[in-house]
Prior knowledge:
By secondary structure, the chain is mainly alpha-helical.
Amino acid sequence: MATAEIDQHGHAHDEHEHPSFLAHHFETPEQQYDSGKLGMWLFLVTEILFFSGLFCAYAIYRSLRPEVYTYCSQFLNTELGAINTGVLLFSSLTMAWAVRAAQLEQHKTTVGMLAATISCAMIFLGVKAVEYSHKFDLGLLPAGFYHYDPAAPHHEGLSHYLVALCVVPAIVLAGMICLLAYSKIVGNVFLTKCAMPLVVAAACFFVGVGLGTVLENRAAAKAAVAHAADSHSDATHEETSLEADVAAAKEITTTAESSVLGMLATDATNTGVRAELEALQAQDLMATGEFIEDFSGEDPFYDRPELDVNSNSLAGVFFSIYYCMTGLHAIHIIIGIGVLVWLLVRAVRQDFCSQYFGPVDYVGLYWHIVDLIWIYLFPLLYLIG
């Protein structure tokens, strides 16, 4: 039987009519859930508008300078982008599973799926750290700092940029390990249940670093082999073309000298015969497709200078857009990890039930939007060259 409490004003309140998870300004759990979901959708609309500005900048600059995107796309590793796409798609599955498990009061499954989502996010960041550090080594930086030199020797071995990007995750991993050891020593079950999945999630960052390093090194090796093959092919082609031109010239000269006109043309006074002989030689060259008209004169079309794509004002602008779009997306991933850790702690505490699972659902909506943005970023930046 429900018991009533009398406040200082003499009003009776049923303590079971207002559960602890229900905020005082809501009458029912359904009202609280619907209000929270509406607020989350309004927030996500602002996020979509925010990224829309970046997509507009991408579209405008691509329409103005398509050759810049063709040139710069060769520096983007499609394999790394595809791996991150698959990781984020799987994280959407685990996040949706966590929402359903929280609704069904499956507390262990909720904790496991939240930990899996955090682990996928850490793998994503690890792969992205390798990708960023490789571009930093090459000088593929935003406008104002861009200094890529194709002739410069590339850095081999462990990048100091990658080491710098791994410092904070290493500190986090060490902290989680210390927390787990402390919880084991003092026998705190709650801390142990929280620390164990977080240790695994923090370690997944270095799984992403290892995976990204292997793929990046393999791509660099393929590029080096392809470049060497192209250089050898160009040299062979030039040598073959030169030999063919010399042989053709010798053949034409021999034929002309053996002909009657050739013999007559040996006399300097026979200028008409010489002109006729030159005309016949030009006609033979045109018939074989080897005749090239001389455009050495002043012509604005042929004298137009080529566009230097590898410059701070062109390629640098592309990488400014690239770092803005992918960097802000990575920041959203980091924010999502922080909120997911908060949910994991609450799930271990068993705060969620069939009437109160809104926070998990709200964060799930945020996570799906972040994944959806990457689904657009991957083809636009990595696949469309």
